[in-house]
Amino acid sequence: MDESHRKSAERVRSEIERGVRPPSFRDALMAVPASERDAWVDRVLGLGELPSDGPDLPSGCVPYLPCPVDALLRAVDHAPVRASDVFVDVGSGVGRAAVLVHLLTGARAVGLEIQPRFVVAARELAARLSRVSFAEGDAVDLAERLGVGSVFFLYCPFGGERVTKLLSALEPIARTKAITICCIDLPLPPCSWLVLEPSVGPDLAIHRSTLHLSDRGLPA
Ligand SMILES: C[S@@+](CC[C@H](N)C(=O)[O-])C[C@H]1O[C@@H](n2cnc3c(N)ncnc32)[C@H](O)[C@@H]1O
Questions:
Q1: What is the C-alpha separation between 67 and 136, in angstroms, rounded?
Q2: Which amino acids bring their CB within 6 angstroms of ligand 1?
Q3: Residue 52: DSSP 8-state
Q4: Average pLDDT, the chain
Q5: What is the pLDDT of residue 40?
Q6: Distances in Å between the alpha carbon of 84 and those of 87, 103, 133?
């Protein structure tokens, strides 16, 4: 990594350690060549080797793999995630995506993670950031935590019946407010109250709820 980007990573890191959300975070990230942004983010957040999964991962649930920064940037821009949103990372691993989206947008971020030691790591990562929090458990059972969200992010945390269960848990929430579901590499089953945004990209899908009169300028 270029010396100037190494230095910018250290500067941003020290700001975060002081509990400051760097106002120029996005500019600093975008100044780094796309191919080096993942390494830059890992440096900023002090993330090392990929942690291994524990025995707590039920079958049908996907092991930890961080979402590439490029895909997260596109999700944030297409959703879009605004400072007034609550971003919920369904299957948040060590908290990288939730923290990154908070730093990029100022949105409150909530991570839901089934593997307890990842939750511990995520809480350590976000210790100084007041608007980022993590809950432990099977995301489909964390109805109260889901209920705070306006933008839901799924980097293929699970498949099959759990996805259907998650949509059932989100439906009552979508009756009270407009929600957006961003999926990376995860096709959703047919769902009568969601509309798929056309032509977003091969890996990213943006689904918008239609049950509530939208505050995002879309038809209810
Ligand atoms: C592919 S990783 C995505 C991590 C994170 N969203 C990111 O993009 O950096 C999937 C994560 O979902 C978690 N997970 C799998 N099934 C889950 C469930 N039912 N409830 C909560 N978390 C789950 C896994 O432990 C893993 O950390």
A1: 19
A2: 57, 61-62, 64-67, 89, 91-93, 96-97, 112-115, 118, 138-139, 155-158, 162
A3: P
A4: 94
A5: 97
A6: 10, 13, 16
